[in-house]
Amino acid sequence: MKALLVIVGWCLLLVLCWPLAILAIVLWPLLWLLSLPFRIIGITCDALFALLRAVLFLPARLLGYRGASPGRLS
User: Fold this and answer.
1) Residue 18, domain member (yes or no)
2) Residue 12: inside a domain, yes or no?
3) What is the dihedral sign for C-alpha 58, 59, 62, 63?
4) Which of 10, 34, 48, 51 is most buried as measured by Cβ atoms within 10 A of its Cβ?
C-alpha cells in the first residue's frame, strides 16, 4: 500500500511540476546511499543493546525468574 501511495504521489508531482519529479527520481538513490551508514550504525547499536540486556538479565534467567506473564497470578 505504501508503494502505491508513493507511485501515485510521484505521478501527481510529475503532472504538477515535472522538473521536481525528475529531480526526485535522480536524487532518491543518492539519498538512499547516504543513509546506509546511519542504518548500519542503528543496527549495530540495536544489537549492542540487545547483547547488554542479555548479559544483564543472565543471572535472573539462571535463577529461574520468568517475569510477570498474563496467565500467572502473583
Assistant:
1) no
2) no
3) negative
4) 10
